[in-house]
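Thread title: Can someone regenerate the structure for this chain?

I was given the following input by a collaborator and told the matching structure tokens would be attached. They weren't. Posting the sequence so someone can regenerate them.
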Amino acid sequence: MKILGIIPARFASSRFPGKPLVDINGKSMIQRVYEQALKAKSLQRVVVATDDARILNHVLEFGGDAVMTSSSHPTGTDRCFEALEKAGGVTKYDYAINIQGDEPFIDPETIDQISGLLDFKTEIATAVKKIKDYDTLRDPNVVKAVLTMRKQCLYFSRQVVPYVRGFEPDEWLEHADFYKHIGIYAYRSDVLEQISHIPTSPLENTEKLEQLRWLGYGYKIYAIITNYESFGIDTKEDLEKINL
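Best answer:
Regenerated them for you:
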């Protein structure tokens, strides 16, 4: 099985412009993400997919692999499909893994765990982590995932789901399992091509969660449960937390 690792990296971020190039203790954020992804044993190639020549040139300068993609892509998934095409397409790679470009400490073992779900039948795979505190549970910025017994994702929400009937909300963690969604995806190559062309859905527009589009059109998403705690850098304040 051939798996391509793709790291989408845009320069124009509304909350933190230029963040892929920001310095983190001597290395840029995108270099740290790239080097972590290279440690994953399951990937045959890792490529940065960007829409900006500054990022492209920087990646090439530190010896990385990068491709230029359109600046008009509405989502990282669309950018991933263009990168897949430029890297050889569906005939060369069986799966593509979308690795978030703003997680400089992404765990290579999590990438390999997700790769372990890929058997040609799996359409999309992702990762979740068990929620253990109420601040995380109540935070609408933390996306919650609902799983079947076979670890198939039923739904994703910013709301607390499932609802625990018969108990007060501050007792829910003692009576049910809740999962935080970790935003890394593996797509079967033909499925990535398909989902890059389907229109948005009402649920997606309501919760502002792209994965609800895929569920709404009947695609199956399976998850691994990891202990990895993701930490994405969305703002300069997030950067200050890790530079202390």
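Residues 164 and 171 are 9 Å apart (CA to CA).
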